[in-house]
Specification:
By secondary structure, the protein is mostly helical. The protein has two domains: 196 residues, Fumarase/aspartase (N-terminal domain) (Fumarase C, Chain B, domain 1); 307 residues, Fumarase C, Chain A, domain 2 (Up-down Bundle). It is 55% helix and 5% strand. It contains 20 helices and nine strands. The strands form four sheets. Strands 4-6-7 form a three-stranded antiparallel sheet. Strands 1-2 form a two-stranded parallel sheet. β6 and β7 form a beta hairpin. The relative contact order is 0.11. The mean pLDDT is 94.
């Protein structure tokens, strides 16, 4: 993971955003970007005394854009803009979301298309590097004219006002945190307030973080499916390369190849096949069609990453300073492209989780689990085994289906009908984050259940009949969670596996057992 990220006039990479937002990488500006920033500021400075109105320089904002502002009140205009727009409410947004938002805004400022002063950008960057994170509430952005309220809280902190958290997570007044870091508050000049808040930066940051996490979760969904195929005495023949070549969706090809690697060398599957005891002509859809569903999710992810790439390469502001020095109003702040992508991912997440829950349920039903104890209980009736773990999955999946309802189809007009169609992309981003948390938990329960089923099949990891990949997964799980026995307090065991899924250690353990890593 990068520890330093350089921002030039070109686009950041998604890995840059993850490194800064989640892992605290430091950021610096290139000389080329500082030169571009200075050039565009010269354009704005030339308009300060112009008698013609220029939006964001000498006028009010939104529906108040017809109001001409005297020169002596224009610094107050910028302060008033930030103070009035820092109007979020609700639960505090995660630190990584705010840091991603700040980085993306700095990236747009560094393009030299916004008209801010170089010193203002440097001050914003210094605040980010110092680990000062403004407090932002979950409500306030409609995803059009950008993520106005969230970005305004960040600009407010830059002015030395509002509440922030320092590097250690301590809640402080912004002025106090800036002083402790050796930083001075910024007095905003013409156009700067608007340039600091008019972008899709928050929703974009959430999209990039979600896409990063979903790569890991889709590989683990393949692992979960493979463990379930093995534990339910299914067949791996449906994952054959020539069968999937008949429907050459790239994501499906990746998932099928993953499943072949996961199940390669499984003595249990080979034993089951050689004994001639396989009487089912076909496995259930939740086993047989995993590559098709997981592959469709990968195709969605691929599309979403292309959207994120375009957005990272954008200079989103209104008005913008064009390359030939004009200051032009535009609609590039509209969050529809990002909002749609966030909603699209939420659909895929819900469906992958839904299929996982169906596989788990099969382990618990004696009419479908091929010889396992009811609910994988040690002594069914006395013990309930994983009965309620599946309830937990079902509750999460039900919630994920609600979260899959798109936010971007909604729009409530604002600013006296001047801003009469909005994207709701910020809301789409927040619900996607909740959906990914749900998928993580659903997969953890399936993997925990499949590991327990395999312990019933072969007596434990020490004499595992599983493949190298599934045995590695079970071995790591057994370091955290004991094998089958009488009922125990189950919530901590689910949480232990959730952590293994979430922090990447389970995927790492499986990949270490394979010649080629899962994709």
């Amino acid at each position: 993971m990068k520890t330093e990220v350089e921002i030039g006039v070109g686009a950041l990479s998604p890995d840059d955003v993850v490194a800064v937002a989640r892992h605290g990488a430091k950021v610096q500006l290139t000389e080329a970007s500082l030169s571009a920033i200075a050039d565009s500021r010269a354009v704005i400075d030339a308009l300060v005394d112009d008698e013609m109105p220029h939006y964001g320089v000498s006028t009010g904002f939104g529906a108040l854009a017809t109001k001409q502002i005297p020169v002596e009140l224009r610094s107050q205009l910028q302060r008033s803009l930030i103070r009035s727009h820092a109007a979020s409410s609700g639960a505090e947004v995660d630190r990584e979301v705010v840091r991603g938002l700040m980085l993306n805004r700095i990236s747009t400022l560094a393009t030299g298309r916004t008209g801010v002063r170089p010193g203002t950008v440097q001050a914003y960057l210094s605040m980010l590097n110092a680990g000062i994170t403004p407090v932002v509430g979950e409500y306030g952005s409609l995803g059009c004219s950008g993520d106005l309220a969230p970005l305004s809280h960040c600009a407010l902190a830059l002015m030395g006002e509002g509440q922030v958290r320092n590097q250690d997570g301590e809640l402080l007044p912004a002025a106090e945190a800036l002083a402790a870091a050796g930083l001075e508050p910024v007095e905003l000049r013409e156009k700067e307030g608007l340039a600091l808040i008019n972008g899709t930066d928050g929703m974009l940051g959430m999209l990039i973080l979600a896409a990063h996490d979903l790569h890991r979760l889709l590989a683990l969904a393949d692992l979960a499916a493979g463990m379930s195929v093995e534990g339910l005495l299914g067949t791996d023949s449906v994952f054959a390369e020539d069968l999937h070549a008949l429907r050459p969706h790239p994501g499906q090809q990746v998932s099928a190849a993953n499943l072949r690697r996961i199940l390669a060398g499984s003595a249990l599957i080979a034993e089951h096949r050689s004994e001639g005891s396989f009487t089912r002509v076909q496995d259930a859809y939740s086993l047989r069609c995993a590559p098709q569903v997981h592959g469709a999710a990968r195709a969605t992810l691929s599309h979403v990453e292309s959207v994120a790439g375009y957005e990272l390469a954008s200079a989103v502001d209104n008005p913008v300073v064009t390359l030939d020095g004009r200051v032009e109003s535009n609609g590039n702040f509209h969050g529809a492209p990002v909002g749609y992508a966030l909603d699209f991912l939420a659909i895929a997440v819900a469906d992958v989780a839904s299929m996982s829950e169906r596989r788990t349920d099969r382990f618990l039903d004696t009419s479908r689990n091929h010889g396992l104890n009811a609910f994988l209980a040690d002594d069914p009736g006395v013990d309930s085994g994983h009965m309620i773990a599946q309830y937990t999955q079902a509750g999460i999946v039900s919630e994920l289906k609600r979260l899959a309802a798109p936010a971007s189809v909604d729009s409530i007009p604002s600013s006296a009908m001047q801003e009469d169609h909005v994207s709701m992309g910020w809301a789409a981003g927040l619900k996607l984050r909740r959906a990914l948390d749900g998928l993580t938990r659903v997969l953890a329960i399936e993997i925990l259940t499949a590991a327990r089923a395999m312990d019933f099949r072969d007596g434990g990891v020490a004499q595992s009949k599983g493949s190298a990949a599934t045995t590695a997964a079970r071995a790591l799980i057994r370091e955290q969670v004991p094998g089958p026995g009488t009922d125990r307090y189950l919530a901590p065991e689910i949480e232990a596996v959730r952590r293994l899924v979430d922090d990447g250690s389970l995927l790492d353990a499986v990949n270490a057992a394979l010649a080629e890593p899962l994709l």
